TrEMBL record:
InterPro entries: Peptidase_M32_Taq
Annotated protein name in UniProt: Metal-dependent carboxypeptidase
Presence of the UniProt keyword DNA repair in the record: no
Active-site residue numbers: E255 (proton donor/acceptor)
Cofactor(s) this protein cannot do without: Zn(2+)
Swiss-Prot/TrEMBL GO biological process terms: proteolysis
SUPFAM superfamilies (UniProt xref): Metalloproteases ('zincins'), catalytic domain
Catalytic activity: Release of a C-terminal amino acid with broad specificity, except for -Pro
Species of the source: Gymnodinialimonas phycosphaerae
Family as reported in the entry's similarity comment: Belongs to the peptidase M32 family.
Length: 488
């Protein structure tokens, strides 16, 4: 067993260094002084060089060839180490380091261009990022589909063709539901002033309600909310608009879903090859089920109404109508603010543009026009400014091509998990009515979260839910929920 033991020991250090890299990224988005961007890019490139050298070390291949698994845990470790090694050895070290440096620097340039509504200022950088990502994809794909190579980084075992077919099945029912809701009377949004300190205080409270362990995490502010880390150090961020408190609260709950997945993985799996979420689609299933099926449910919204009154005073909506306020359907520009009916349509737009970008049908220079044309066709609105269009998301500036479709996959997975959860915990709404999601959290922890990446993404969802993955549970849930709330 010497080969297996040596491999696992070596990989433990690699995983620890990967956590350090993640902490640098967290700091860049929360605490780093703006003038440090160039140096941080150099630091990240240097650490990426160290990580790439470890992942491509010839001994890893030798250990993999000689290692024999003793348990299912060993087999999962070998599966994930082999997958990472096979990918890493195809990417030249210089390319990996340059991508790390450029995407670190690109993030700050994107933020500045976004604030100035200046696409032209950012296009040269984006063009450089895309060129390097195409080069990376070509190296990994070895003659295969470039976009499939990108998707594999975030959802192993899934292809663009499979995702495209899934979206083709989903779109008609989503559009039909949206069209029915277009004639429904929507309640007004909350109005008033909601001070930042009170929003953050309530966000801390609700994060704890949903199981976030502040002894092993913290809540900070960022331009784009995110979760970072795993194991004993998992951090989340949110953002605040003093005229609109629901964005802060639900961004927090969303990130808590990501974070508790990481916090609840069995401690003995920490700093192993599968001691984190198994894929971004599975990760997103946790954030979306926390945010939508649990926290936007009618019973929980009545509880939340009381907590908001306690913090902010009387609201412009009554408790019994709060679910309609929180789930109001409105066509908008921003993906992260989209209701559940529109959300997947935002993802489908990005997926198709990415696929064209890596398939050679679209160039960066034409990306803004393609975005604006497609958005108008899908949403019936003209994009009014770049921050509501091409520049709204950080993903492309930092090279996360292939990431967007996992958001929609996460919704599909959440639909499957919710159907199973409701089957196994039939009185869940009674607990949610008093602000107690613990029965749902325990079910998710036991059936999915504690296992980390022990199983493949598909196996993880099907093991937890006991059903074959399908879009039907999600679409049925949306029809029932929004039909009931708005009488369509």
């Amino acid at each position: 067993m010497a080969a297996l033991d040596d491999l696992l020991s070596f990989n433990h250090t690699t995983e620890a260094l990967g956590q350090v890299m993640g902490r640098l990224g967290w700091d860049q988005e929360t605490m780093m002084p703006p003038g440090a961007a160039e140096q941080r890019g150099a630091e990240i490139a240097a650490l990426e060089g160290v990580l790439h050298a470890r992942r491509t070390d010839p001994r890893v291949g030798e250990w993999l060839a000689a290692a024999e698994a003793r348990t299912d845990v060993d087999r999962a470790q070998l599966r994930e180490i082999a997958r990472a090694h096979a990918r890493a050895v195809k990417v030249p070290a210089e390319l990996a380091a340059e991508l790390a440096r450029l995407t670190s620097l690109s993030q700050g340039l994107w933020a500045k261009a976004r604030a100035n509504q200046d696409v032209a200022a950012f296009l040269p950088t984006l063009k450089h990022v895309v060129a390097l990502k195409r080069e990376e994809a070509a190296a990994i794909a070895e003659g295969g589909d470039l976009y499939d190579a990108m998707i594999a980084d975030y959802e192993p075992g899934t292809t663009a063709a499979e995702i495209g077919a899934l979206f083709d099945r989903m779109r008609p029912r989503l559009v039909a539901l949206r069209d029915r809701l277009a004639g429904a009377q929507m309640p007004p949004s909350l109005a008033g002033h909601f001070p930042k300190p009170l929003q953050l205080k309530l966000s801390h409270e609700i994060a704890a309600t949903f199981g976030y362990d502040f002894d092993h995490g913290r809540l900070d502010l960022a331009v784009h909310p995110f979760s970072s880390g795993s194991g004993a150090d998992v951090r989340i961020t949110t953002r605040v608009d003093e005229a609109e408190p629901l964005g802060c609260l639900y961004s927090t709950i969303h990130e808590v879903g990501h974070a508790t997945y990481e916090q609840n993985i069995a401690p003995e799996f920490r700093l192993t090859a599968f001691g984190q979420g198994v894929s971004m689609g599975v990760h997103e299933s946790q954030s979306r089920i926390y945010e939508n099926q649990l926290a936007r449910s009618a019973p929980f919204t009545r509880y939340l109404h009381g907590r908001m009154v306690e913090h902010f005073g009387p609201l412009t909506a009554h408790a019994e109508d709060f679910a309609r306020v929180i789930n109001r359907v409105q066509t908008g520009y921003i993906r992260t603010e989209a209701d559940e009916v529109h959300y997947n349509l935002h993802i489908m737009l990005r997926f198709d543009l990415e696929r064209q970008l890596f398939g050679g049908q679209l160039e960066v220079e034409d990306l803004e026009e393609a975005w604006n044309t497609r958005f108008a066709a899908d949403f019936g609105m003209a994009v009014d400014k770049p921050s509501n269009g091409l520049l709204q998301d950080v993903h492309w500036p930092v090279g996360l091509f292939g990431y967007f479709p996992t958001y929609a996959l996460g919704n599909v997975y959440a639909g499957c998990l919710d159907a199973a959860l409701r089957r196994d915990v039939p009185d869940l709404d009674v607990a949610l009515e008093v602000g107690d999601p613990a029965p749902a959290l325990a079910w998710l922890r036991e059936n999915l979260q504690r296992h980390g990446g022990l199983r493949t993404p598909r196996e993880t969802i099907e093991h937890a839910s006991g059903i074959e993955i399908s879009e039907a549970p999600l679409l049925d849930y949306l029809d029932a929920k929004y039909g009931g709330l708005f009488g369509v």
